[in-house]
């Protein structure tokens, strides 16, 4: 391992992560592991690239120096970003799996017990078939989840980085809410979110923000498609800011006109769920308990709405196609996992089908402490943002957005402007 001081975290943090991985390898009698999941490679080495469509892997032996197999172009990311000293790159015309196999043989791992991530997005079925049929000299074992066992509880270093992601999330959401007016397009709102998020020091998230208006809010995972917001409609926004591939996310809702009784009730029941959870979440509570709490409160609504998904998911490191760590842990019924300090969750008590034709949301990203939980967005208003009726508003389509302070990432300042109802 090559010690350096220009990585996201101190060198000692990466040493700790590798040592934890090797301890689990020893427990499972593994001589080496092949880590192909992009999030796990970043967690262990600080390596990242948008070129993950090509095969890449970090090989960690129980003893000896780890090495990486990557496309030749991506070798530069190993050299300039990580502590990894040994690489075995393959050209675009080469065979990635044969390079992996020849490297395993070169470093004396043929005939050993080797783990690989069978459920990784980035080690496709074809490559796995080739690997298993070509490398018959070793015992190959599925080790999926061996790194995630460490990732699920964030260190203080990681929580500090997530605060920087939260700064970008808040900046983007504030700008998006400010941009909402009858007559603007969803694209204009999305543009303001993106501008503010990046100006605040945020980096490219694994998924861009979701912005839908009116009847389009009933479409799952839809985003801007040029629709113009109409008077009296509501706009649903979900934003995940990112810093060094760590994410925090939130949902908010804006209304162009008066807030109806049903939308007000939806707002209040979602706020009640978040407030209750923030007071009750603590180490020892089970995932199933959390999900039950959310659903029991949301079930109280009298506006015909439902929670049709999980009630939350782990969040942290993410590459496309998602910004969550829900495959590690999601808040669902029947799961006995217990909350532990350092866990981070996007809690989503959103409501689908208000009055039969509206979806709205208020959400938060919580982190579990030694005796409770905290919010990355404690200083951000949860109420729906209500904009003046179009007939009473000024006729232009000007967009008011926040101006991010200078160097927000290094100074770790807070977004000072809170969301308020327009007078």
UniProtKB/TrEMBL annotation:
Pfam families to which the protein is assigned, alphabetical: Creatinase_N, Peptidase_M24
User: Where would one find the signal peptide in this protein?
Assistant: none
A GO molecular function for this record? Answer: hydrolase activity
Q: Does the keyword Phosphoprotein apply?
A: no
Per the database record, which ranges form the Peptidase M24 domain?
Answer: 161-370
What CDD domains does this protein's entry cite?
APP_MetAP
Q: Which domain of life is it from?
A: Bacteria
Q: What is its EC number?
A: 3.5.4.44
Q: Which keywords does UniProt give here? A: Hydrolase
- By its UniProt entry, which InterPro entries does this protein fall under? Creatin/AminoP/Spt16_N, Creatinase/aminopeptidase-like, Creatinase_N, Pept_M24, Peptidase_M24B
Creatinase N-terminal domain span: 17-152
Q: What class of enzyme is it?
A: hydrolase
Please state what the protein is called.
Ectoine hydrolase
Could you read off the lineage of the organism from its UniProt record? Bacteria, Pseudomonadati, Pseudomonadota, Gammaproteobacteria, Thiotrichales
Q: Which gene encodes it?
A: doeA
